[in-house]
Amino acid sequence: MSKPDGGPAFPTPFSGHCGNDDHQDPCGCYMDPGMTLRDYFAIHSVLAAGILSNKKPSDEVTAQELAANSYKIADALIVEREKA
């Protein structure tokens, strides 16, 4: 089972009809969901980590570790968001 991704971060609704005959016009479907909210949270956690540390990443922290931790933070944010 895949992790919840929070859905689209910046969805763009159709102004008309998506083409599905079962939908009303306008149907409210999305034509381009863009990045997921999980991706958006992960990006911002990387930026926040850099800003909070106010220094360049050391050789002890690899880019892969930073990316993995960013998605862990994003997953935690989505879990908390779903509680509200």
Structure description:
- The structure is a single chain.
- With 84 residues, the protein is mainly α.
- The chain has a domain at 34-84.
- 45% of the residues lie in helices and 6% in strands.
- A two-stranded antiparallel ribbon has the order 1-2.
- Helix 1 (37-53) packs across helix 2.
- The longest helix is centred in the last third of the chain and has 21 residues, at 63-83.
- The chain starts with 11 loop residues before the first strand and ends with a helix.
- The mean pLDDT is 74.
Order of helices and strands: EEHH
Strand content: 5-15%
Query: Any low-confidence stretches, pLDDT <50, length ≥5?
Result: none
Number of continuous helical runs: 2
Q: What is the 3D shape? A: elongated
Radius of gyration: 18 Å
Arrangement of strands in the largest sheet: 1-2
How much helix, percentage-wise, in residues?
A: 40-55%
Mean of residue pLDDT values = 74
Largest sheet: 2 strands, antiparallel
Which structural class do you get from the secondary structure elements? mainly alpha
E-strand count: 2
Distance from first to last alpha carbon: 23 Å
Topology:
Layout: E1 12-13, E2 30-32, H1 37-53, H2 63-83
Helix pairs in contact: 1-2
Short description:
This protein has helices spanning 37-53, 63-83, and strands at 12-13, 30-32.
